[in-house]
From TrEMBL:
Enzyme class: oxidoreductase
A GO MF label: NADH dehydrogenase (quinone) (non-electrogenic) activity
Transmembrane parts of this sequence: 431-451, 471-496, 508-526
UniProt KW Iron keyword: no
Pfam families in alphabetical order: Pyr_redox_2
Family membership noted in the UniProt record: Belongs to the NADH dehydrogenase family.
FAD/NAD(P)-binding domain sequence ranges: 5-327
Listed name of the protein: NADH:ubiquinone reductase (non-electrogenic)
Gene3D superfamilies for this protein: 3.50.50.100
Organism of derivation: Leuconostoc suionicum
Keyword Nucleotide-binding in record: no
EC assignment: 1.6.5.9
Key words, A-Z: FAD, Flavoprotein, Membrane, NAD, Oxidoreductase, Transmembrane, Transmembrane helix
Catalytic function, reaction form: a quinone + NADH + H(+) = a quinol + NAD(+)
Length: 556
């Protein structure tokens, strides 16, 4: 059997979505190999990098190991390497691991920040378009604010305590929203008055969030940031950056040691010599079927484009935006047309494949503006909708593991109240407080089983299998071992008791207490602190395999 390689370059939104789609459709066709190539061994959730940069979440929250994502997709092979060239005549790609032949090629290498040649940005500023860049910002902000708090010279102190973001698009607005919340934490940590940490949003145009058609949403975002102490400077065109601050077109300056540039995106520069027709931002132009175009404008037969590498204008929806849904739609069209080339489906234009549901721009964890399915809204409901969009993406690539951990990291493991519920459901804040209740409930079930609970003995059981179940339930809850399932069992035992006798106030107390300890209280002075992570490691390894820093599965 002749094996044919479908090579996908880039494990971003477009590349991962294409790999998942093709893997599912070609599962029964063993002659096709899907090779996913990236210089990293993990997928980065790019639209959440601002949360890492502002210390809202840990870096691993936006990283998903490719082994985890594709361990169940046996027709997908992973290769950690860099692509250096494409030979279209021989139909091979050149990498640091050698040449790889392809039957079909999908280019989804992503983008990078575009500083438009502004002097000093790369040397003295920060950009936010990769995990490495977000970590630099994360470390820098913590360090510079600490230094500023110890600086006695008022001018130097103000310079160090000023954070400036250039660009008020989705990335800039979301990053500034995170800084609003991080400012409170930093002020408490370094014993500063919160107003000392100055947040400045710089925008060259007369308005913010200019990609929003509904200007009322942009106005709400503007007001929220302004009400929270952000100095929004419109019509402020940055002409240069040095070690002391920012220079503007009108000759004014802004002293700062923290300049984050989010004002533009372009394609990765290394694709510029691959012999395609390039559009705005150095992106590869594509035809209606997402096929890359040659320098003369004719389509390449076996090369497709998706994600931030792509330049395409749809007659109905306009230019493909640099968003998750834009990348998904292009990947969906490219995948359908690759399958059609193999005689396994119908060819689709981008217009036939595109699915735009809307957008949500989070200005921190507590406030969001959104336009979804034709409806515009803001505030708490919009924040929940933003999380729903992220979870929907993970459901599309069939990663229950990612959905579970996303929920934990965004809702139940958050610190400093940085979730839509302002921390009220974070188990980091309340798990220990429920530990005494857990101990009481465990002792209660043991006493009931032994007949030492006074009048309450009449409502439960003291012999046979039921008594044994009560002892197991009580002992497990008391030790904090498997607290969640035993809490559920405690509720079921109480329901059966109430149905057998009659529901009394005691039954309701036991049921609500059982529900309360299911918040993870077994990890507060309990065995679940050790057992649950161990089980996650064992069963996670069996299902998802072992994560590695690099991959080369072509040798298998």
């Amino acid at each position: 059997m002749n094996e044919k390689n479908i090579v996908i370059v880039g494990a971003g939104f477009g590349g991962v979505f294409a790999a998942k789609t093709l893997s599912k459709k070609l599962r029964s066709h063993k002659e096709y190999n899907i090779i996913l190539v990236d210089k990293h061994s993990y997928f980065t959730y790019m639209t959440e990098l601002h949360e890492v940069a502002s210390q809202r979440v840990k870096p691993k929250h936006v990283q998903e190991d490719l082994e985890h994502l594709f361990y169940q997709d046996k027709n997908v092979k992973l290769l950690t390497t860099e692509v250096t060239n494409i030979n279209k005549d021989k139909k091979t790609i050149s990498t640091t691991q050698g040449d790889i032949p392809y039957e079909k090629l999908v280019l989804a290498v992503g983008g990078q920040s575009n500083d438009f040649g502004t002097p000093g940005v790369k040397e003295h500023g920060f950009e936010l378009w990769s995990m490495e860049e977000s970590l630099k910002i994360r470390n820098h902000i913590e360090n510079i604010i600490g230094q500023g708090a110890a600086e006695l010279d008022p001018d130097k102190r103000e310079q160090m305590l000023t954070i400036a973001v250039v660009g008020s698009g989705f990335t800039g607005a979301e990053l500034m929203g995170e800084f609003i919340e991080q400012r409170k934490v930093l002020a408490q940590t370094y014993k500063l008055d919160e107003s000392e940490i100055k947040l400045v949003l710089l925008e060259a145009s007369p308005s913010i969030l200019n990609m929003l058609k509904d200007r009322k949403l942009a106005d709400k975002a503007f007001k929220y940031m302004e009400d929270n102490g952000v100095d929004i400077r419109l019509n402020s065109r940055v002409t240069g950056v040095d070690e002391n601050g920012v220079f503007f077109q009108d000759g004014s300056t802004l002293p700062t040691k923290s300049l984050i540039w989010t004002a533009g995106v372009k394609a990765k520069s290394f694709i510029s010599n691959w012999g395609f027709k390039y559009g705005r931002g150095g992106r590869i132009e594509a035809d209606d079927y997402m096929r890359a175009t040659k320098e003369d404008g004719t389509p390449e037969k076996d090369i497709y484009v998706a994600g931030d590498t792509l330049s395409y204008v749809d007659e109905k929806t306009g230019p493909i935006p640099q968003t998750v849904e834009g990348a998904e739609s292009a990947a969906r069209a490219a995948s359908a047309n690759i399958l059609a080339d193999f005689g396994l489906g119908k060819a689709k234009t981008f217009s036939e494949a595109v699915k735009y549901h809307g957008f949500a721009v989070s200005i921190g964890s507590h406030y969001t503006v959104a336009s979804l399915m034709g409806l515009n809204f803001s505030g708490f409901i919009a924040s929940i909708a933003k999380h729903g969009i992220n979870l929907f993406f993970y459901s599309q690539i069939r990663s229950a593991y990612s959905i579970f951990h996303y929920m934990l990291d965004e809702f139940f493991r958050t610190e400093d109240g940085r979730n839509p519920f302002k921390g009220s459901i974070s188990r980091l804040g309340n798990v220990l407080w429920s530990t005494p209740l857990r101990l009481f409930l465990g002792i209660f079930w043991i006493l009931v089983a032994l007949g030492n609970a006074g009048d309450l003995n009449n409502f439960f059981w003291q012999n046979g299998l039921a008594s044994f179940i009560e002892i197991v339930t009580g002992a497990g809850i008391l030790l904090g071992l498997f607290t969640w399932p035993l809490g559920l069992l405690s509720i079921l035992l109480t329901i059966v008791s109430g149905a057998t006798h009659s529901f009394e106030l005691t039954h309701w107390f036991i049921m609500l207490s059982s529900l309360a300890i299911m918040n993870g209280s077994g990890r507060g002075f309990g065995l679940d602190f050790y057992v649950v992570p161990l089980l996650q490691k064992i069963f996670g390894g069996l299902w998802y395999g072992k994560a590695k820093s690099t991959y080369n599965e072509l040798e298998k």
